[in-house]
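My current task is to audit a protein record that another person submitted. My question to you is simply how this chain folds and whether the tokens agree. This is what I was given:
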Amino acid sequence: MKNLLLTIDAGSSSCKAEVFTQSGESISSGTCPYRMSSPEPGRSELDSQLLRSTITAATQQALQGVAPGQLAGVGVSAQLGLAAVDREGKLLGPILTWADRHATEQAQRIEETLGTPRVYGVCGRRVSPEWPLAKILHYQRHKPEQHARTHKYISLKDYIVLELCGELVTDPTHASYSLLYNVKSRAWENAFLEAFDLDPEKLPDVRPAHAVAGETHGEFAAQLGLPDHIPVIVGGPDGTGGSLGAGLIAENKAVNVAGTTDVVFTCSNKPVFDPQQGTVVNCYVVPDKWVLGGPMSTTGGCLRWFCETFAQTEVAQTEVAQTEAKEAAGRGSSVYQWFDEQAAAIAPGSEKLLAIPSLVGERSPWWDPSRRGVFFGLTPQHDKTHIYRAILEGSAFSLRAMIERLEQQGNQIDDVILAGGGAKSRLWAQIRADVTGKPMLLPKVRSATNLGTAILIAVGLGMHPSFEQAAAEMTTIEGQIEPNPANQKTYQDLYEVFQELREAIGPASEHLAGIA
């Protein structure tokens, strides 16, 4: 009987494939890390061969012991990115990730041509070089031959779907991020296309995220070990999929998907726009619903950078310990778990050390691509563990700023569902609860992005009659972390300094960005 759901997520630092039952039980998974290429400052690209090899490795690992004939459907999610393909579906150059900033000049052109209020009122987001329109205009200006040869501009997720089933489609949420999609009318905005002399035929058709895009066939599907004729759904972005996988269906809830970047969303039955234009308004993967919030900066990515750059000794030691523990008992610990244990012994506030983890610019709710990471208050008494904890706390301060902005818009947030890789850290979850003053709800399946894709497959194939029933049967909250009142006064004082610091470094950030 075909009742298993294969999900593939190409995130910002790794690819994870996972197989679920229609009740939401994870039965196998595989993960393969990768790294984006940065040929020069401000550029962030993903090589297609690297992408294919990591998806293959993760999927083949996940399918070990699974009979392909049991697979009912396949779904894909991915980080935000832009791919240009020709009429044969071949890539024209590398895939540009969300972190790529070399379209800054074009972002300025968009602001000058359309104006930020108009863009936000139509597209539900501020102008940023990370959005597809800015990147398309960069190709139009600097690579006109490639732009002319481009048949469709699609997302990274759409490219994977294309490789699996040969169909060129996108979903309403990815379209929402483009700066070319009207999130109220749910249609491409022709006036914006005309303003930049862009051919609407270069954009893919938009279909519901749970719709079937096509069926598996061809070289790539065979390489993964997939037989022909398995339905492939349209899918959605990783952060939005994580929101669904964490159970975000109703209002008054918020989800924090904690990964390389943090994504924070609350659900709404109508589009609600931020007067300060800081939060994003997206069409949700659930039809007739919207999500409000947006992607934040490099939170988990800042931790990864810190460990890889300054903690090589600790990384090596924990890798040895992990190998020995796996051989002895089938489990081990990571460098993050080791640092968590050390950081838990440090008092809240990291002895007045503050971190702003904006390694590649600020995203929601501030939207400033010139911002960079800051450690403030360093003294000879601080060591690596203080810096590690300060990154955890700085990320939590950014989360609080997002929640406050959403509440200012009239969204009641009683608690936060914490999902993603960052949800595995009990210390980080407690810090988030203490800083925000909100209980953190912990789902049973922390890899919420893959589970969200499994829900899309299950609804799209009719295994569940509605998203509400699918979420009720496939997601479970297994724990709750309450704020510790003893820590809240310290964090309130430091949050005020965090806000002051953010404002103070703005002019210096712009000055620094302007230096050749």
User: Anything to note?
Assistant: Residues 326-332 have pLDDT under 50 and may be disordered. The chain has two domains: 4-234, 297-404+483-513.
